[in-house]
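Help needed: design a sequence for this.
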């Protein structure tokens, strides 16, 4: 697909608006193609390709969201700006969550349009990927991120199982959705199950379903996640938390491509693609005996990883500004301007909670600082982790070893300090302490620590 760097596809069914947009782009030196509807737009895009698409939201033969999704399937780096005369905040938020790099509410000025273009086209082509729940976004221009997305796009064209290993908060589920939406299964279900969140005694039934009377309380048959995901994609989130006792059954399912409901002997064919994610190294778990080697190699057909935010520092300003627009859209407020000094300071931090931590930071500072211009003074009450090498991850061991302190008290102190260091992130705390997330959860209950603080 050949593209011209300064070329744009304008899509709008209103002739007057379409002609005005074309004239404005030409005035700014762009090579412009236009389309009066969704079908014409996709034909022109498939023939030529464009780094930028500006499209109306609603047209007689389609909508801007469908155009955006189809564009992204063939060209993930293309930036899409949506225009809508139906200026509801929920619709704008849906657009951003579905992957639009920006949106404009009609009527808008051409100065606003050019400002939007400047945001989404600064530097190399950016990729914006959203989930349907408005969680973290995969947005950026760093080579590390783009390499991962190119590899994921290639994996999407196969039916091979995928293993995604990355730190918590980097967007593993979004990458799984990225693969699903660019595969031939995109019109079938995407089903996610968190192996760490489901109690061990219920996980088998949750995955495989159960027959009526299989156990006390099973008054009716129930389909499990493997059946619900029929024809689509099943995400096994935090697969490293799967109990050892259940791992042989999962291995057999992956090998034989069939399973049985709990309490049944009738085999059910597996028609779903498996994507597994983990925030710890399964290879190290195999070495420690906490994860089966044969299951690891069966899951690890196509390995993928997402870089932590500290490894893609050039994306931090992009994400901060993106989140500022998204949060403002959700609140129905003007988008604040972030100073260059503030963005530079944000790049100096390690963000151990990754994109999720940066999003929550932006949500907090926008709530507490309603000014239109935000500068470094908003950081005075913030405690952010510096880049690696400048501080210790935990206090010196001697600080915890007070003669006469009993073991239970020391264990509680260590758990609290580790959770404080990880900003309450149980997954990272578990990795630092070499224990499971389930153990962290149990210890929080045992010591009576506030569960809301350590979510």
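Sure. Designed sequence:
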């Amino acid at each position: 697909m050949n593209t011209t760097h300064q070329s744009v596809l304008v899509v709008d069914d209103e002739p007057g608006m379409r002609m005005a947009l074309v004239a404005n782009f030409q005035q700014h030196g762009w090579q412009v193609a236009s389309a009066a509807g969704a079908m014409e737009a996709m034909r022109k895009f498939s023939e030529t390709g464009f780094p930028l698409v500006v499209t109306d939201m609603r047209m007689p033969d389609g909508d801007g969201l469908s155009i955006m999704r189809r564009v992204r399937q063939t060209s993930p780096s293309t930036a899409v700006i949506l225009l809508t005369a139906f200026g509801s905040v929920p619709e704008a938020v849906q657009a951003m969550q579905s992957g639009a790099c920006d949106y404009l509410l009609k009527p808008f000025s051409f100065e606003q349009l050019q400002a939007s273009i400047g945001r989404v086209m600064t530097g190399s082509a950016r990729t914006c990927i959203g989930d349907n729940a408005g969680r973290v976004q995969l947005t950026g221009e760093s080579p590390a991120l783009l390499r991962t997305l190119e590899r994921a796009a290639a994996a999407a064209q196969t039916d091979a199982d995928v293993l995604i290993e990355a730190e918590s908060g980097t967007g593993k589920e979004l990458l799984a959705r990225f693969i699903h939406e660019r595969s031939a299964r995109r019109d079938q279900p995407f089903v996610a199950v968190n192996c760490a969140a489901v109690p061990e005694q219920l996980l088998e039934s949750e995955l495989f379903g159960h027959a009526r009377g299989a156990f006390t309380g099973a008054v009716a048959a129930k389909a499990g996640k493997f059946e619900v995901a029929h024809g689509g994609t099943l995400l096994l989130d935090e697969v490293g938390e799967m109990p050892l006792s259940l791992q042989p059954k999962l291995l057999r399912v992956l090998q034989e491509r069939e399973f049985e409901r709990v309490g049944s002997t009738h085999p059910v064919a597996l028609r779903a693609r498996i994507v597994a994610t983990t925030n710890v190294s399964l290879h190290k778990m195999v070495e420690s005996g906490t994860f089966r080697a044969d299951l690891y190699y069966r899951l690890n057909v196509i390995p993928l990883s997402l870089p932590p935010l500290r490894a893609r520092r050039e994306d931090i300003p992009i994400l901060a500004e993106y989140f500022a627009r998204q949060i403002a859209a959700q609140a129905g407020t003007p988008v604040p301007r972030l100073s260059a000094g503030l963005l530079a300071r944000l790049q100096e931090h390690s963000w151990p909670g990754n994109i999720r931590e940066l999003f929550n930071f932006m949500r907090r500072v926008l709530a507490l600082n309603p000014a239109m211009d935000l500068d470094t003074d908003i950081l005075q009450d913030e405690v952010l982790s510096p880049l690696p090498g400048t501080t210790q991850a935990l206090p010196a061991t001697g600080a915890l070893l007070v003669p006469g302190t009993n073991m239970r008290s020391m264990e509680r102190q260590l758990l609290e300090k580790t959770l404080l260091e990880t900003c309450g992130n149980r997954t990272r705390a578990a990795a630092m302490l070499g224990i499971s997330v389930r153990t962290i959860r149990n210890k929080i209950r045992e010591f009576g620590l506030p569960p809301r603080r350590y979510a």
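The domain at 397-447 is CATH 1.10.10.60 (Arc Repressor Mutant, subunit A).
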